[in-house]
Specification:
mainly alpha; 9 helices; 82% helix
Length: 215
């Protein structure tokens, strides 16, 4: 069976796996973005706290993804829980680091001007600092998403959702007629999803970042 014949015969299952893969990454990115930005907001004013936050989140990336999921299985079980937990933890570093850099890069004179017109600290953060820090934050989200697309494939080890199941099935049946087709279909599916997500982020950037700031 050729690769295209395999895609034709398995397209329904592949589409289901692709949807589950994209859904898992998207939901974990939403959670990681909220947590990452909150960590950055809480720590960016202090060099010590900001350094600690960056170090703590970067330490997570030193743990191999397969080992991370393996360690989570006894705690949260198989399936979606270890997948969501691992992906969220792995997605934090680019977001935390870029959010801290972005918030620290806001022109102090703009913050002082907002303070001068009576804005509270929360209002300054919400209406001045975070909007100006959004471009680097979005870049961090893009980087994290590309990382998670690949890492999410390992979730199949813990019976997690996504295209990793197709890859693992192919690897476990090497030598069979469709083993290579399975690995190739899963891999190319992840690549296509990563490109689609990145294109969506480019569009979001064009819609949410003023031209002057982009330049």
């Amino acid at each position: 069976m050729t690769f295209w014949e395999y895609l034709s015969s398995r397209h329904q299952q592949l589409l289901t796996d692709a949807y589950q893969h994209a859904s898992a990454v998207f939901q974990c990115m939403v959670v990681a973005t909220l947590i990452g930005v909150l960590i950055a907001v809480a720590t960016y004013r202090s060099d010590w706290a900001g350094g600690l936050a960056t170090t703590a989140t970067s330490t997570v990336l030193t743990i191999p993804s397969l080992a991370m999921i393996g360690l989570l299985i006894p705690v949260v079980g198989l399936g979606v829980p270890p997948t969501v937990t691992a992906l969220t933890l792995y997605g934090l570093l680019p977001i935390v680091r870029n959010a801290i850099v972005g918030l620290r890069g806001v022109d102090p004179s703009l913050v002082d001007a907002a303070r001068g017109i009576g804005m509270s600290r929360f209002a300054r953060l919400l209406r001045v600092e975070l909007p100006l820090a959004w471009p680097p934050i979005l870049t961090g989200i893009r980087v994290a998403t590309q990382m998670l697309m690949g890492i999410a494939a390992i979730a199949a080890y813990a019976s997690g959702p996504g295209l990793g199941n197709e890859i693992f099935r192919g690897i476990s049946s090497l030598g069979s007629a469709n083993a290579l087709n399975q690995v190739l279909a899963g891999t190319l599916g992840i690549v296509v999803l990563a490109l689609l997500f990145d294109a969506a982020y480019v569009l979001i950037g064009r819609l949410t970042i003023p031209r002057g700031i982009r330049v």
